[in-house]
Amino acid sequence: MKNYLAICAGLCVVLAFGSCKSKESMYRKAYDKAKAQDATDATENNYDDTPEVTPFVDTPVVDNNNNNNNYDNVPVRTETVTVVNGDGLKSYSVVVGSFSIKSNAENLVARLRSQGYSAQLAYNSARDMYRVVATTSDSKASAVQSRTQLRNTYPDAWLLYYGN
């Protein structure tokens, strides 16, 4: 009787451990399927959120509203943009961020607004980039001063001339 119980117990142990054994092929199938899905998502959604590193040409812009032209040598970019979210751009704007993904730009706009700025979102269709504008002004001198202050937090802030 003891032999019979020992044989039954041994058989149960062998069956229990044998049926729980993981098969590498099952894990491989799941892994391959997940990798294929990630590759498909990356190509369909274009998750490339690397910063724009294209060079730009400084455009000389003379501030006719300012009698003291000390700011004429400050570089300004001229771009054609469309206001996506905001009250509208004046002649000179301070851009603190450029994003290829709209939601990232909207997050920065919300953060700037919570800090008291009248931030706006503009879209440059030629470069397919969203520009986050922290401040906007009719005077180049005022925009340069604002940019100087913003560079403490946003060191890559730059001036945009929006020639309506």
Structural account:
The chain is an alpha+beta fold and 164 residues long. The chain has four helices and six strands, in the order ααβββαββαβ. It has a six-stranded mixed sheet. A hairpin with a 4-residue loop joins β4 and β5.
Order of helices and strands: HHEEEHEEHE
Helix content: 25-40%
The largest sheet is: 6 strands, mixed
Task: State the helix count.
Answer: 4
Q: What overall form do the CA principal axes indicate?
A: rod-shaped
Low-confidence stretches: 52-59
Number of strands: 6
Structural class: alpha+beta
Strand order of the largest sheet: 1-6-3-5-4-2
Measured on Cα atoms, how large is the radius of gyration?
Answer: 30 Å
Mean pLDDT: 79
> What is the CA–CA distance across the termini?
99 Å
Features:
164 residues; alpha+beta; 39% helix; 20% strand
Ordered list of secondary-structure elements with their pairings:
Elements: H1 2-19, H2 24-45, E1 77-78, E2 82-85, E3 92-99, H3 102-114, E4 120-124, E5 129-137, H4 140-150, E6 158-161
Parallel strand pairs: 1-6
Antiparallel strand pairs: 2-4, 3-5, 3-6, 4-5
In short:
By secondary structure, this protein is α+β, with helices and mostly antiparallel strands. It has helices at 2-19, 24-45, 102-114, 140-150; strands at 77-78, 82-85, 92-99, 120-124, 129-137, 158-161. The model is unreliable at 52-59 (pLDDT under 50).
